[in-house]
Amino acid sequence: MTTITLVQGDITRQSADAIVNAANSSLLGGGGVDGAIHRRGGPAILEDCRRLRASHYGKGLPTGRAVATTAGNLDARWVIHTVGPRFTREEDRSELLASCYRESLRVADELGARTVAFPAVSAGIYGWPMDDAARIAVETVRATETSVEEVRFVLFDEPAYEAFARQVG
Questions:
Q1: CA pair distance 30, 6, nearest whole angstrom
Q2: Cβ of 13: how many Cβ atoms within 10 Å?
Q3: pLDDT tens digits for 122-165?
Q4: Contact, 128 vs 89, CB < 8 A?
Q5: Any idea where the Macro domain is (predicted)?
Q6: Which tens digits make up the pLDDT trace of 43-88?
Q7: For a disulfide at 154, which of 11, 20, 43, 146, Cβ 3.0-4.6 Å?
Q8: Shortest CA distance to 14 belongs to which of 33, 28, 29?
Q9: For the chain, which domains are there?
Q10: Could you give the CA distance from residue 115 to residue 14 in angstroms, rounded to a whole number?
């Protein structure tokens, strides 16, 4: 059974087998969590991402999918990059957001990762309301069969932490 833990803090400071990056489809770095992971992880992550773009993901990583690279200078073995959907009131993209968590856990299982640190995917610059993002994240992790022993949600601030705490119970 997977244990869910919550931490308020900086995901780039976590020690885990895999750290999940809320990436953009280019895989080449960006703002928010993505930029922080690339900055702290160093150039090895970007080099791996460039190789992925040159081979399997020439048009970028599709929304809801996940792929792993080295973790560079982070205290982890891998970074699992997943592309969350942008929030819109016109279209329900909840299934794409849930897919980010399922696909990240699938990749973690393929790698043999036992501890995985997740951010609140899509709840930053992609505009997903935090309470709903937390609900989808926690429900999806609980419903996904995985060999991962600990899923750690690393929340940047107190409101995000509290939103996830309400879902974990």
A1: 25
A2: 14
A3: 999 899 999 999 999 999 999 999 999 999 999 999 999 999 99
A4: no
A5: 1-169
A6: 999 999 999 999 988 899 999 999 999 999 999 999 999 999 999 9
A7: 11
A8: 33
A9: 3-168 (3.40.220.10)
A10: 11
Return all residues near 84 (Cβ < 8 A) that are at least 6 apart.
Answer: 22, 63, 64, 96, 97, 100, 121, 122, 126, 128
- What tens digit of pLDDT does each residue of 107-127 get? 999 999 999 999 999 999 899
Place of tokens 């501890």: 115
What's the confidence (pLDDT) of residue 56?
84
Q: What digits encode the pLDDT tens for the residues 89-99?
A: 999 999 999 99
In angstroms, rounded to a whole number, what is the distance separating the alpha carbons of residues 28 and 169?
Answer: 36
Catalytic residues: 34
Here the tokens at position 50 are 């460039």
Write down the pLDDT at residue 36.
Answer: 95
Distance CA 109, CA 11 (A): 20
